[in-house]
Amino acid sequence: MYGPGDLRAFDRLARLYDVAMPPARRAPVEAGLRVADRPVDLLLDVAGGPGRASAGLAVPQRVVVDAAPGMAKRARARGRDVVLGDAGRLPVADGAVDAVLVTDALHHLPDRTAAVTAARDAIRPGGVLVVREFDPSTLRGRALVAAEHAIGFDSRFEGPDALADRMARAGLEPTVVGRGFGYTVAGKREVQ
Fold first, then answer.
1. Which candidate among 27, 41, 44, 129 keeps its CA 20 to 30 Å from the CA of 94?
2. What are the pLDDT digits (tens) for 146-176?
3. To which CATH superfamily is domain 4-189 assigned?
4. What is the pLDDT of residues 41-72, one digit of tens each?
5. Domain residue ranges in the chain
6. Can you give the pTM of this predicted structure?
7. In 3D, which of 134, 170, 180 has the Cα closest to residue 155?
8. Are the C-beta atoms of 107 and 155 separated by less than 8 Å?
């Protein structure tokens, strides 16, 4: 799921993660979920850490999928449904969920194409992949890239248009929902 150095770091930093990270912004994620052509009753929060991004969403069932055992343990301690798993090989059947959410994490995944493809496969027709990320072309984005590399993360960032292209190549219909330092792209799986 994460690059090897990132996985070890997230496993070690799990206890401090909520203190160090600002609260997840719900409004951009909710805007991405509204791109779906179906009700979102079951959502996978992939690379979701302690589940902070999906915690406040009005979705009946949310499942956190994370490869870092320390993060999965934190999510379980918060009462979240949790599966230890890899973003590139999601532990669900094809067409099993209404939405997949990846918040502030895609840049840590060594194979983003595999993660987007696995999300596409997991989503039912009319469902949506919502990715919230950081734009490396902004001033704050360049600072974040430098900071993550300085502390040893294997992060690789891409802007909203590049992510939308990646989703389109995977067979999703992308919509850039919001731009800026933090941006959101939603990729809808076509109704067949």
1. 27
2. 988 888 888 899 999 999 999 999 999 999 9
3. Vaccinia Virus protein VP39 (3.40.50.150)
4. 999 999 998 898 998 899 999 999 998 888 88
5. 4-189
6. 0.90
7. 134
8. yes
